[in-house]
Amino acid sequence: MTENEAPDSHLPMLATPQAERLRALVAECARARYGAERDFVLVGDAVERAGRLFPLANLARRCAAAPEGDWPALVDAHFAALADASPGGESAEELLAGTCLRLVPADAVGPAAPVHAREVAEGLRLALALDGPDSVRLLTDEDVARAGADELWAAARRALIRAPMRHEEVRLDGHPVLYSVYGDAHSVATRAVVLPEVVAEVTGRRMPDAGALVAVPTRHLLAFHPIVDGRAADALGDLATYAVRAHDEGPGPLSPRVYWWHDGRLTSLTDIDDAARTIEQRPPRELVDVMKALRALDRAGRLDSGRPGEAPTDSFAAAPTDSFADALAGALAHAESDPDAARVETWDAWVAAQQRGTALFAHGKDGEPPADDGEFAPEDDAARAWLDAFYLTLVTRDRERTTRLCRVPLDTLRGGAPVDDYVPHWIDVLQSHWLRRPVDDVVDRLVTTITASHPDVATLAPKDFLNLVDYQPVALFHRLLTHDHEAFGEALAEALVQHAGYWGESGAPRARVALGPLALACLAYDMDFPVRTDLPYLPRYLLNRQRLEVAPG
């Protein structure tokens, strides 16, 4: 394909030279009808004039089907029809049926275009618009008075939510995932005002409590990143670059800013100095505090301990390694090709991870970890590593190592990277139960754990991670402790639904196996609970012990 044959980026029904000729004809016709060139703006796929938008797509389709010699007549006829069309006066019923929402640049709405609009964020206003086949007219106060403001805004919002959209994930090595929403419709970017619905439709998960970062560089583009962990800081930089580039290059520019959607509001994070021609991101203190409190996931899918030089990633290879994090990731990654854990190689990987994990907590003199172990540094997350190792011993049924772990002093696990209080409380519950301490003591510790894990109390773990992942084994243990078989089965099913809801389509090994629920299910199975062995995220032959083999000491 030559350059002359390539489709135009804004009017793809025409080759680029054809689209340029059509725009020249449109500009000539518009100047003849509307006067000075400053009265209208010709963008890639439309003409804008006095608050009214005239898309060129339908005209371009007609031209594509006609000889180029007929194009001047087609352009004249097109604008003659627009001139004859009513510029207003529609009935209330017509307005309610055809009105939609449109984001417009703040400087596009002023005395020269007295339209009915609301300010939604710095640099953006939200207007009511009447869609037609060849034009989009922004409604005036007079229009709105005929149908009622509340009724029109509600109808326009419903229409926006129903509008179809296309979307994709943007994943680059070492970068957090961005979600891109795009399309030919002029309402694509406007969906930022109903972002929770967009997030649910695109990701399959609800909007996080911390909100999302979002950019609307043109009418046809919207990009966002849900704020669920510490990678949001990197996503802000990526979105800023994307917003400026798309705003400068795309048709229908809206804003080069990045916004924070939170509690129903869009807050600009971008400081634009027109005189110095600079653009900087200056998030407010509230967002900075939120991002500092959130932590990313490490290579094993745990909350990142913050070790320098280790970037989180969503893809892992099932390869042997000396690191517990990598050994665990390798074991979990086997579930992609062997979801039932039917192969001996899968079993060997689980045993290797379990042995590597428990070796971290082998005690030297006076209950202290041996000085030459080398795995844990002061900043490491010993408590979460202990939980992973403990879960692995339950799955592999290595009772001796489970007991060893339960004798590790709790104070030893409180060092290193900070964790919410519910984490050591949960470890205390597991150790107390396994070492057969009085049931009343175990119950008291469990109540303390449940209280400390309330989202209003815990401040370090992202709330989604806490509710959908971390709390699920606690809920299962509660049913295990009461020997309520039916309630345990219901809680297990719910834990797997929550696991799927949190991880979605992530390629992280932790997404493929619900490790905590699997460990509690193995414990329940060994206590003769009627545990189903055909559930997702629970490798069948690990749960029912059929893959169990003698592990080397």
Rounded radius of gyration (Å): 30 Å
Runs in which pLDDT lies below 50 for 5 or more consecutive residues are: 305-321, 364-379
In round numbers, the mean pLDDT is: 82
- Oligomeric state of the chains present here: single chain
**Helical run tally:** 22
Span from first to last CA?
66 Å
- Number of folding domains? 3
Query: Percent range for helical residues?
Result: 40-55%
Question: What overall geometry do the principal axes of the alpha carbons give?
Answer: elongated
Strand content: 5-15%
Question: How does the major sheet shape up?
Answer: 7 strands, antiparallel
Q: Could you give the count of β-strands?
A: 15
Summary keywords:
553 residues, alpha+beta, 44% helix
Give the topology, please:
Elements: H1 16-34, E1 41-42, E2 46-49, E3 52-55, H2 57-64, H3 71-84, H4 92-98, E4 99-105, E5 117-121, E6 124-131, E7 136-138, H5 141-147, H6 149-162, E8 166-170, E9 178-182, H7 195-203, E10 212-215, E11 221-226, H8 232-249, E12 258-262, E13 265-268, E14 270-273, E15 278-281, H9 285-293, H10 324-333, H11 344-359, H12 382-396, H13 399-406, H14 410-413, H15 422-434, H16 439-452, H17 463-470, H18 472-481, H19 485-503, H20 509-512, H21 515-526, H22 540-543
Antiparallel strand pairs: 1-2, 2-3, 3-7, 4-6, 5-6, 6-7, 8-9, 9-11, 10-11, 10-12, 12-13, 14-15
Helix pairs in contact: 1-3, 4-5, 4-6, 10-11, 11-12, 12-13, 12-21, 13-15, 15-16, 17-19, 18-19, 18-21
